[in-house]
Amino acid sequence: MNNQFSFEIVHQSKKSKARAGIINTPHGQIKTPAFVAVGTNGTIKAVENNVLNKMEQDLIFCNTYHLMLQPGTKIVKNSGGLHQFINRPKPIITDSGGFQVFSLAYGSVCDELKSKGQKKYDSTVIKISEDGVTFRSYINGDKVVLTPETSIKAQKDLGADIIVTFDELPPYHVNQKKLKASVERTHRWEKRSLDEHLKNPNNQAIYTVIHGGLDRELRTESCKFANNLPFDGFAIGGSLGKNHEQLFDLVKFVTPQLEPERPIHLLGIGDLKSVIPCIELGIDTMDSSHPTRCARHGLAFTTQGAQKIVSIKNKNNFGPLDPNCSCSTCKNYSAAYIHHLFKAKELTAYTLATIHNVHFMIKYMKNLREKILEDKI
Amino acid sequence: MNNQFSFEIVHQSKKSKARAGIINTPHGQIKTPAFVAVGTNGTIKAVENNVLNKMEQDLIFCNTYHLMLQPGTKIVKNSGGLHQFINRPKPIITDSGGFQVFSLAYGSVCDELKSKGQKKYDSTVIKISEDGVTFRSYINGDKVVLTPETSIKAQKDLGADIIVTFDELPPYHVNQKKLKASVERTHRWEKRSLDEHLKNPNNQAIYTVIHGGLDRELRTESCKFANNLPFDGFAIGGSLGKNHEQLFDLVKFVTPQLEPERPIHLLGIGDLKSVIPCIELGIDTMDSSHPTRCARHGLAFTTQGAQKIVSIKNKNNFGPLDPNCSCSTCKNYSAAYIHHLFKAKELTAYTLATIHNVHFMIKYMKNLREKILEDKI
Q1: In chain B, where are the structural domains located?
Q2: Which residues of B touch A49 (CB under 8 A)?
Q3: Radius of gyration over every alpha carbon of chain B, rounded to an integer in angstroms
Q4: A345 touching B, CB under 8 A?
Q5: What pLDDT does residue A250 have?
Q6: What CATH number does the domain located at B6-95+148-296+357-373 have?
Q7: What is the rounded average pLDDT of the residues A81-103?
């Protein structure tokens, strides 16, 4: 699809479906498996890109929905594209905006929006039709039309290395008939997304979203649909179940049905309990705001599990948050100091904890990659 | 008073009382005139010390009142002192806690406290006597006794390069009789502070606070008191008037009465309108949370004055906040991006704007120092 994008499987584990790979993009390599940090508005929360750029965070996830509404994709385009705008020379993936807009339609305002806490207008979906979705901007009340074509055009303006097809996100408790209709519409929208993309590939790769909720037949259909079109990669989306068991069952069912030559992304999953099982099932990349949100809530990821930074035991802990960590937070500051910053509600608390958790995820994934190369997972 | 502290006047301007100097401390030099950034809780708000350390911010101001209550000065001491605790190898000054505790007593909760916005207990002064002040911690309601001796002990625990004597801060609208009594008590407290300090100088320098409000006789008395004791420097405090004119008049009246061999600090002043006039009147250092607070409120300091970052003209401004600025914010990010981050209420907005304003103040003072050396101001 594009000359500068390719996926190379470096090693297929003999022990599981886990694989170590390299995704080549116009802005450099992504070593897989990779955790993708979320930078909704073009910044990881509390860590400026100049600092993040020095870490081995190969790929970050920005949200088209948010960037469309603020600052607007034209401004990003005019500034020279998202990499230039946010000062990130490394790979970026954007989503289609579908997830956010449908979270609103079905009443479950997603975490990302909740965290804003500053809605001026009710975020209201006005109309959903075969063409797409019309909704009101939560920023200024403007009417916005999101269709496969406008989503792809917006993502062209942003210019991320990887873009995602526009899809419908049905609610969890939908009946089979409606789910089937939704998946079929999603497929039509994904085809329209692809067609729009191919008018001007612009050195971007396009991933398509595998839907079908927990319905195995629909998931199989969605895999077939995706395999048969020249998407550069797959993203498993839609309802992923209500617990880890359902998630793992679903991933286990889906990944073998996807063409193995293309990278597989898992949308919105990144808690530590999910990472290894999903990678063992063949997931190459996964994004989640979980590690950075945990950091802002005072949870430091360590090899001993997530630790509450404001725990009384850190009050006098003059060692680092994690003695095994080499991040700049652990190298420069004691757990007692960061404990103090959280107690004092200092903004730098969020910065230091976020740097730590992002570093943790990078190292965690690096370690898993080594294990795959040695057929140990 | 201490071997590692000295003040060297490099050049006395021929045009005004402005002087360029060097304050030597155990943690390095402070080139004067210097703006002192405020890091109340041991961190400049929104900028971690690891980043600040790379800037030429020679001196920062930490608040003993806040650090006593959270995390407690014993914890800081046990961690190896404030420099070690907060990861700052450069000079630090702490105040006595008097200012904050008396702001509470007289009902005008100072800006610093207002900005916390999270009081669990009413911050209540229980008793003011010749011994000192008893108040309740705004954090946990504990009774805390602040006297000249406990303040100096707390500042010994913290271990800043420069400490300040404990003083009484009378309200602005006090009558002459009460003001006189207050200044006299302050002088007794300052002498007790000095005595406590001299028991264990600990390589720290001690500044004393010049009081007397707008009463010229009392200010003169306070200068004489300070000149006659071996304080390492002076800090002009108390009521400084209600506008710039009163401030400048006061500084003009006070500085000639202080021994010229010792550095003169101006407490709590740092707005751009005040800097040059005060330096021309002989002020060597001045602290204020103004530049960093402005940054968090979206005001970028530039050679053209303070600019509102969310101004519509920055929406499409792909150049830096200030074309004449070489700070890491201006080198790495456009005004449009920072405009966007403020609009999106991203924490990194505060970080980038703060770095810019701190850099601006450093460069501004550096430039003034050059001008003094050339007898231009």
Answers
A1: 6-95+148-296+357-373, 304-352
A2: 332-333, 348
A3: 20
A4: yes
A5: 98
A6: 3.20.20.105
A7: 95
